[in-house]
Amino acid sequence: MGRLDGKTVVLTAAAQGIGRASAEAFAREGARVIATDINVDKLKELDSIKGIETYKLDVTNMAEIESLAAKIDIVDVLFNCAGYVHNGTLLETDEKGWDMSFDINVKSMYRMCKIFIPKMISRGEPACIINMSSVASSIKGVPNRCVYSTTKAAVIGLTKSIAADYCEKKIRCNCVCPGTVDTPSLAGRINALEDPEKSLKDFVARQKMGRFASADEVASLVLYLASDESVYVTGQPFIIDGGWSL
């Protein structure tokens, strides 16, 4: 028996990183996994895994979300993983970067929840939502992450609001707040810097455990929140950062 046997999971940003590790973990535990991403080429690599169905999805496009939802009758778990990391202080952040960050990091979750919560309510069965936040939020101030941290603080607020509004409808909502995670996204950001080798050392130096988290380690927490093991948990931000926020 898998921990998610008989459950249908919808998740965004499944092509790589935490999203991909989570999709694979969900499938191993017996779920029907609706894995979505805008990166179709990477996403298709999941097609060979039993239990995973892949769909192209732009989380900034409400029409695409509605089209996807029309193909799915039952949703037990929604994992909003899509996000964008903007680099810079407030004075270095223009309105375009500010608006894009909120659109991808916060409004995308609004869109997904707006479409999928009614499906959860109509069944009358327990369901859950997991949102991707970050330690760089209301939890910890991080240099050069102004709008990113602001959006991730908003995700914590959104999570608590959804939890409060829909608890009596049997819908739980929690968020995951990682520190620095070893993902293709992180590697890409580091390699784009002026001195990637020094930047990598600086990133590692700020980790109290002396290393980054792996995507699989974060996926294990996501899996717990998706399973019935966390049935009495709602409205909570879960920190997984190796002690960075201490």
Automatic annotation (TrEMBL):
It comes from the Eukaryota. InterPro entries: NAD(P)-bd_dom_sf (IPR036291), Sc_DH/Rdtase_CS (IPR020904), SDR_DHRS6-like (IPR051122), SDR_fam (IPR002347). The keyword NAD applies. One of its GO terms (molecular function) is 3-hydroxybutyrate dehydrogenase activity. Pfam families: adh_short_C2 (PF13561). Its EC number is 1.1.1.104, 1.1.1.30. This is Dehydrogenase/reductase SDR family member 6. It comes from Patella caerulea. The lineage of its organism: Eukaryota, Metazoa, Spiralia, Lophotrochozoa, Mollusca.
